[in-house]
Structures are given as C-alpha cells and as structure tokens.
Amino acid sequence: MHLIDLISGKYKPLTRNTRTIMVMNSKGGSGKTTLATNLASYYASRKRPVVLADFDPQSSSLAWLAARPEENTPIRGLAAWRDRLWIPRDVDTVVMDVPAGIRDRRLVPLLGRAQSIIVPVLPSAIDMRAATDFIAEMIAGSAQSPLAPKIAVVANRVRENTRAFDTLEQFLGQLGLPFLTSLRDSQNYVSAAERGIGIFEMGHASVAVDLDQWDPLLRWLRSKRSQTEPS
Ligand SMILES: Nc1ncnc2c1ncn2[C@@H]1O[C@H](COP(=O)(O)OP(=O)(O)OP(=O)(O)O)[C@@H](O)[C@H]1O
Ligand SMILES: [Mg+2]
Questions:
Q1: DSSP three-state, residue 19
Q2: Ligand 1, atom 8: nearest CA belongs to which residue?
Q3: Ramachandran region, residue 65 (left: φ > 0; alpha: ψ -120 to 50; beta: rest)
Q4: Which of 55, 17, 38, 23 is nearest to 152 (CA)?
Q5: Residue 53 carries which DSSP code?
Q6: Where are the domains of the chain?
Q7: Could you count the other beta carbons within 10 Å of the beta carbon of residue 16?
Q8: CA nearest 54: which of 74, 29, 32?
Q9: Measured from the CB, is residue 108 less than 6 Å from ligand 1?
Q10: Mean pLDDT calculated for residue range 12-23
Q11: What is the rounded CA–CA span in Å between residue 146 and residue 168?
C-alpha cells in the first residue's frame, strides 16, 4: 500500500464496527491457518469483501492466497506482521491469522484488535492443557484491553467421536465460553489448502460433513454472542 492510496481514501483504518475475527492459539500446528483461510473462503463464497490479515512472518495464509485461482472471488491479503492494518474502503470483514507462541506482553495488544477470537484445539491431553492455560491468559489479558473480544473454542482434527474434550468443555463452561464444534481430520482441508481455496468452494458432496461441522461456528459468528457492542 502506498501513501497516495491512504491520502486518496482508497484505504481506511479498522474501526470498532469492522467485523474482525481472529484465529489464535499459542500452540503450533493446531489449525489456525486452516481455520483462518477457510473462514476467508467462506466470506468470499458469500461474495463478501474480505481481508485476510496474516500476523505470522511465516506468511502461510498469504502463501495460500498466492495459490488462489483467478476464477474464485478475490480475497485481499495483508502482511499484518509488517504493515499497518489499513484495509480497502469496501471491506467490512477482516480475518486474522496469528502465529503460535504469542503470550504475555505480545498478547494483550493483539486481543484488542478483534471482536471475536476462535481458538482451535487438537484432541490431545497436552494440547488441551496448554489451551486451558492460554485461555486463562487471554481472559486476564482481555481485562486490560479496550476492546474485550468474545472467545470461543473449536476442536480440530478430531478422528472419532471422542470424550477427550469433556474436561476442556467443563472448564469453558465454568468461564461461560462456548465450545462450538468439532472439525474432523479430513483430506479436504489439505487439498483445499494446496489449491488456495476453502471447503466452502469445493464440490458439495465431498465436503457435506465438513460444512455441517462448520455450521455452529458460522452461526456463532453471525450472532450477537460473538460480537462486542458497536460504538
Ligand atoms: N481438520 C484438519 N484435517 C486435516 N488436516 C488438517 C486439519 N487442520 C489442519 N490440518 C493440517 O495440519 C497442519 C497444521 O495446520 P495449520 O497450518 O492450519 O496450523 P497452524 O496452527 O496454523 O500452525 P502454525 O502454528 O505453524 O501456524 C497443516 O498441514 C494442515 O493442512
Ligand atoms: Mg499458521
């Protein structure tokens, strides 16, 4: 983005009313980029102008975007680890992909950037324990942030009907945070990732189960429960 674009009014800063959705977990490989890219693909498939803001210098989300076919609705990428969070004037939705390992002093400023935060968690005891610690840190951090985000958890890469998440669900219940859905481990995510698309842009029959599993997450994102009061 050039200074001239800012002056000409082609770009705008985020406001409290921008629909901002962040995917974050301190644990690596939990599915942050997978959720962020699929969410961006969902909004694109609904013809909603969307920015995918990559806070990760590894830039996996932007690499996904680079593979995106021309015939698919464009998604604008933003190298948010480096550039200012200014978005094209016509965009009202921003999906943010955050790198692993963000904690302590680096966490609080990020919490203030999104209305809704989705935490993907893998079904292992280690991942779930780490997630409870991280969520407790997020809640403490939110109290210091001007824009307290709404937080929800999604289980990712679930292989079978498992009770593995019972303890995590109980913990979230005590905090009043929702456990939205379980996403299965599926090759659909892997092949979508390679092609720069999301499951919302694939043939319906092969992804029918996955689309059903996303439904509670999308419903939460549409509802007031996931949004801070607009100013
Ligand atoms: N539901 C799923 N089914 C199958 N594969 C998955 C699923 N979710 C993620 N993956 C795969 O797991 C790997 C890690 O996922 P992803 O890159 O989304 O995690 P991440 O949290 O962004 O990782 P990092 O912390 O390195 O940024 C990728 O190869 C991805 O394709
Ligand atoms: Mg990632």
A1: strand
A2: 31
A3: alpha
A4: 23
A5: E
A6: 14-224
A7: 12
A8: 32
A9: no
A10: 93
A11: 27
Pairing state between β 150-158 and 76-79: unpaired
CA pair distance 20, 112, nearest whole angstrom? 10
Select from 214, 117, 121 the least CA-distant residue to 164: 121
Instruction: Output the CA 37–ligand 2 centroid distance in Å.
Output: 10
> Is the pLDDT assigned to residue 204 strictly greater than 90?
no
Q: How far is the CA of 99 from the centre of ligand 2 (A)?
A: 6
For residue 9, the CA-to-ligand 2 centroid distance in Å is 32
> Is residue 172 within 8 Å of residue 153, measured between CB atoms?
yes
Given the candidates 3.30.10.20, 3.20.20.80, 3.40.50.300, 3.40.50.720, the CATH classification of the domain at 14-224 is 3.40.50.300
The predicted model scores a pTM of 0.95
Flag whether pLDDT at 90 surpasses 60.
yes
CA distance 213 to 50: 22
List residues, by chain if needed, whose CB lies under 5 Å from ion ligand 2: 32-33, 60
**Is the pLDDT reported for residue 44 higher than 80?**
yes
Degrees to nearest 5, angle at CA 15 with 231 and 65: 140
Six-digit token string for 79: 């190298």
State the ligand closest to the CA atom of 24: 1
* Residue whose structure tokens are 């299965």: 184
Question: Token pair 């709404």 is at which residue?
Answer: 150
